[in-house]
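hey
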């Protein structure tokens, strides 16, 4: 079974940086940046491309489908770390409808203490 961990916090809080570092140090782990996934899909999806270029928020339905697609493509991983998902109540409610194997294992709201613990863990792993 895959463990799914979500890192939640404001832009620039280190979710992407530390999420990617953590995934690189865990066995058979993958890091998903929802923003990167959406940018990749915008290359072939004109509607999504227009929304993103306009600066508007992308509809939850589109975001949810992008995340589900990315999770399904990584179902062979032991750990999947999500950067910034879910962001709102609607996205959180979707989590409850996912198949059991895609249920969230843990969510961390980025605050100083979590960032400190991740920095310590990553520093110890690189020694």
């Amino acid at each position: 079974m895959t463990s799914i961990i979500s890192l939640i916090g404001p832009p620039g809080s280190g979710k992407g940086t530390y999420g990617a570092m953590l995934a690189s140090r865990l066995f058979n782990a993958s890091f998903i940046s929802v923003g990167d996934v959406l940018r990749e899909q915008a290359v072939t999806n004109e509607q999504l491309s227009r929304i993103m270029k306009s600066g508007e928020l992308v509809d939850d339905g589109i975001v949810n489908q992008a995340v589900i697609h990315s999770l399904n493509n990584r179902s062979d991983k032991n750990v999947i770390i999500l950067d910034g998902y879910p962001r709102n109540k609607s996205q959180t409610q979707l989590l409850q409808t996912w198949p059991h194997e895609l249920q969230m294992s843990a969510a961390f709201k980025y605050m100083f203490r979590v960032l400190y613990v991740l920095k310590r863990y990553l520093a110890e792993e690189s020694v």
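The CA atoms of residues 33 and 83 lie 5 Å apart. Strands lie at 3-8, 29-33, 79-83, 106-109.
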